[in-house]
Amino acid sequence: MKVNGEHFQTIWLDSTESIIHIIDQTKLPHHFTTKPLHSLDEVINAIKIMEVRGAPLIGVTAAFGIAFAMKSNSSDDSLKDASSRLFQSRPTAVNLQWALNRMNKELIPITSEKRFEAAWSLCQTILDEDIKTNQSIGLHGLHFIENHFNKKTLQVLTHCNAGWLATVDYGTALSPLYYAHNKGLDLHVWVDETRPRNQGAHLTAWELGQHKIPHTLISDNAGGHLMQKGEVDFVIVGADRISMHGDVCNKIGTYLKAIAAFENNIPFYVAAPKSTIDTDATKNFFDIPIESRHEEEVLMMQGLNSNNELTNIQIAPKGTRAFNPAFDITPYKYITKIITEDGVYSPQELKSVYS
Ligand code: MRU
């Protein structure tokens, strides 16, 4: 998508140097900066501190982590070690595991001399596929919206950031909105700020603004009120993991929005690639690892100070302890439809389509 009129992806390759470049998302919206990544350690760090974030983008970046590991040491042990370190970098989004499995499946059977080249080429494929997948989600979502809503200004609410910044390009939940806007549909998006890391305020508001989609930032607590007042036609969010039953793990606070939407008879849509579906039906989905992040993310807030410098300020009394679960699970009964690159399904249909 465009940044100040110029096309950007969140991640791209420099094949001559065998390195990648990313947009550093910890500095947005105030500074647009890109940075190169050269090694497995740099990839792990970028995922952990959320320079790259969003389930699909974490998966793509992790694949490059494997390629970098193969560049310096392409032995079986190195592959195993890199996979296990990447796996632990952010535990909830299943796309990371999906990308690691795909890399391992390709690399294990081939000789170690050929591994780096094969890894690099598969990374490029995974990156390109992500763009196509999100375009497809966008088109399915667009047709669904066109067939189900017929009103002057469509009021949409979204939580966190499931836009192009969370993927290589286009996004998942925001992809249908980009297609709709480009086609001339009149849209307005309510953007949840998404405490504690404020991905809505920092990222979604920024990317919608860059694309000139009308939007208004709201506090996380305002959504229920807007729904009661008839100001929301549908909610659309992304996902970090979806069970075969259609339960959806996504950014903390998604569950509360889904309950509010259900209570007010407002459709609640989830847009995600099939790589977000956790096909392991042997475990209880409500026992999946929910990442618990540092308490500082709740106790501090980032923004510009009066000198226009990016600053963290403390918002709670010194010594206050905080708890910071990064995701929650919305049971399938609150979800109206799940949009994937293959179509639009009810949660109950997922099993027959994807098992
Ligand atoms: O903690 P984050 O910013 O990585 O969380 C992102 C989300 O929860 C997104 O909604 C989800 O990954 C879907 S992104 C297309």
Q: Would you kindly provide a written description of the structure presented here, covering whatever features stand out?
A:
38% of the residues lie in helices and 19% in strands. The strands form five sheets. Strands 8-7-6-9-12-16-17 form a seven-stranded mixed sheet, with helices on both faces. A three-stranded antiparallel sheet has the order 3-4-5. Strands 10-11-15 form a three-stranded antiparallel sheet, covered by helices on one side. With 355 residues, it is an alpha/beta fold. It is built from eleven helices and 17 strands. The longest helix has 34 residues. The structure holds 5-S-methyl-1-O-phosphono-5-thio-D-ribulose. 5-S-methyl-1-O-phosphono-5-thio-D-ribulose binds next to α2 and β11.
Query: Kindly state the mean pLDDT as a whole number?
Result: 97
Share of β-strand residues: 15-25%
Shape: globular
Q: Which cofactor or ligand species appear?
A: 5-S-methyl-1-O-phosphono-5-thio-D-ribulose
Low-pLDDT ranges: none
- What is the topology, as strand order, of the major beta sheet? 8-7-6-9-12-16-17
Radius of gyration: 20 Å
Share of helix, binned: 25-40%
Keywords:
355 residues, alpha/beta, three-stranded antiparallel beta sheet, 11 helices, 17 strands, binds 5-S-methyl-1-O-phosphono-5-thio-D-ribulose
Give the arrangement of secondary structure elements:
Layout: E1 2-3, E2 6-7, E3 11-14, E4 19-23, E5 34-37, H1 40-48, H2 55-72, H3 76-89, H4 94-107, H5 115-148, E6 154-158, H6 175-182, E7 187-192, H7 199-210, E8 215-218, H8 223-228, E9 234-237, E10 241-242, E11 248-251, H9 254-263, E12 268-271, H10 296-299, E13 300-304, E14 310-314, E15 327-330, E16 337-340, E17 343-345, H11 350-354
Parallel strand pairs: 6-7, 6-9, 7-8, 9-12, 12-16
Antiparallel strand pairs: 1-2, 3-4, 4-5, 10-11, 11-15, 13-14, 16-17
